[in-house]
Amino acid sequence: MGAEDSESCRWRFGRVMFAEAGGKLAIDGQATEIDRSCAALLAALLRRIDEPLGKDELLEIGWPGRLVHENSLAKAIGRLRQALGEDGRRIEAIYGSGYRLTGPVERLHGPPPEAGHGAGIATRLRARLFESRQRALTTAGVLSLGLSLVVAGAALWWASTAQQQAAEREREVEALLTFLSSDLLAEADPYASTQQDRSLRQVVERTAATMDDRLRDDPATRAVLHRMVGQAFSGWGEYEKAVSHFDRAQALNTRLHGGYARQNIPVDIALCQNLRLAGETRRADRICLRAEQVARSAGSPLLGAAQIVRAKLQFEVGQYDEAATALAGVLTDSAGLSPAERADAEWFQALSLRKLARFELADGAYRRHLTIRQATWGDRHPLTAWAYADYGDFLVASGDFAKADRHLSSAEAIFNATLGSNHPESLSPAYSRAIAHLWRGEPDQARAILRPMLTRYRETLGSDHFWTLYVMGELALAEAQTGGVEQAEALLREARRIGARVLYGRDAKAAYFHMRWARALAALGKTDEAEDERRRAHMAMDRGGFMPDHPWRARLDCLAGRIALARRDAAAARQAGRACLSALDAADKLPPTYPALAEAKSLAGADVNAMR
């Protein structure tokens, strides 16, 4: 099939109509939003109906010129099946190979009936928005005010030339977006106290699927709408769809104003955040840096927000010192920060300081973060739950298990009441409890928590997400300590294979994983492999710039003691335990309850028969 045929081709099968031009999908005549990758995959499967397409070929089709993991393909196929509804079952997985779409399908020619389709959308929107007098008055008022603000804001923006006027218009556009998002798209917030309105979500999805055609001659409005729709999908936790819309907003703004225009600053900030949440941290790094650079050169009031999202990414990839330094600067000059931005800065400052083993400073930042969230949201919002959860996790790492349990219980109660007990975020406190069980020598309890959690994270986040990788490593240790040798070995093989890819160049983050894998291998009696992972952790700490008195360096000696015990060398275990204890005693202001201290004391008096 030639390129021209492909662009004009339409397909029909079951309840589905798909136009390759623009990747437009309709189910029972109703437009349904799919991202670019899903549209490209569907087109390829349709062109070769009933034929299997290999994973490598599909990866190149869906993400041309980009290096992505095959897990991205599996997630895209899952989204595509969901979008197709009952016809999604026609997409069959070919074990170990790829996918195919089964027929029959009908290939159509000629332009799609745009006018009728548009009229259907208008009719349905009118019915929803004006079905009662009260709703009609509310809708008319909101839309009238919103439209007038859009027109006035756009006119003022384009008319402004002076730096002061441009900054003022930027603040007005931000206020407009906040107003429209809170009044028209409030239900897109997964943390909203009211239940999501499914009909509103359908309106958003159908609008997203058709607005590029209906507003093809108005790129400025399309840019604003793509950004708003991206915010909605981000709020629903659908980060890849959000990225798709922010990309389109960025491309439209670039065409109108240039790639380094101040209009792109808020779009790049949103892209940075959503790429991080989607796990695309390498691309996020470029976008985050550009957002900060443009905001600084333009004197934008969004500079603080740009610095915060970049610091959050730096923490995510293991650049803990850089993140802590950047956030300290933001908090020092924080007059222009909103409460939400200040809370985010304190939050990731606390997380970074913890990784740097600055426990007293981290404790203060965690408590300030919790105080701001409570003052802003009260004790009935998931952001407050996160403040409790991360402080609880910090307390587990410090060894204050009783206090940690109280904070984790508060987090669980809020998460379960607002997001539901099976939401990926709601599982965070349970992960911290599992770590506490492992430190207390209770691997059975840890395993009972981590097994279903790993299944859930694989389903929702994918196997190459850092959260999944953390759970995989801890479960491998729990399985090894409870006699699940085959399960532990399989988990370690998978974790190390994924880690070789996602941890490359992220030495500070990799150090933790190498230590935990070494601990699990030692528990399995695979002492040579355990020693190799311990050595890799040591090298990662050197490359990552860990200070000589960082407690993780001391824990390398404790690991050596564990490996010696597995080799039944009590003398070597005691020597390593004493070295570990000495190094921990030299660490700056280490909490007396720090769990590795008890481990070091136990190793220093090790008896092989008593400890095995």
Characteristic terms for this protein:
five-stranded antiparallel β-sheet; 612 residues; 5% strand; globular; 3 domains; Serine Threonine Protein Phosphatase 5, Tetratricopeptide repeat
Question: Helices and strands in order, then pairings?
Answer:
Layout: H1 3-8, E1 10-13, E2 16-19, E3 24-27, E4 30-32, H2 36-47, E5 53-54, H3 55-62, H4 70-84, E6 91-94, E7 98-101, E8 106-108, H5 114-129, H6 133-159, H7 163-184, H8 198-214, H9 219-235, H10 239-257, H11 265-277, H12 281-297, H13 303-316, H14 320-332, H15 339-355, H16 359-377, H17 382-398, H18 401-418, H19 428-439, H20 443-460, H21 466-481, H22 485-502, H23 507-523, H24 527-543, H25 551-566, H26 570-586, H27 595-604, H28 608-611
Antiparallel strand pairs: 1-2, 1-8, 2-3, 3-4, 5-7, 6-7
Tell me what the structure shows:
The protein folds into three domains: 110 residues, Arc Repressor Mutant, subunit A; 241 residues, Tetratricopeptide repeat domain (Serine Threonine Protein Phosphatase 5, Tetratricopeptide repeat), CATH 1.25.40; 224 residues, Serine Threonine Protein Phosphatase 5, Tetratricopeptide repeat (Alpha Horseshoe), CATH 1.25.40. 71% of the residues lie in helices and 5% in strands. It is built from 28 helices and eight strands. The protein has a five-stranded antiparallel sheet with strand order 4-3-2-1-8, with helices on both faces. Strands 5-7-6 form a three-stranded antiparallel sheet. A hairpin with a 2-residue loop joins strand 3 and strand 4. The protein starts with a helix and ends with a helix.
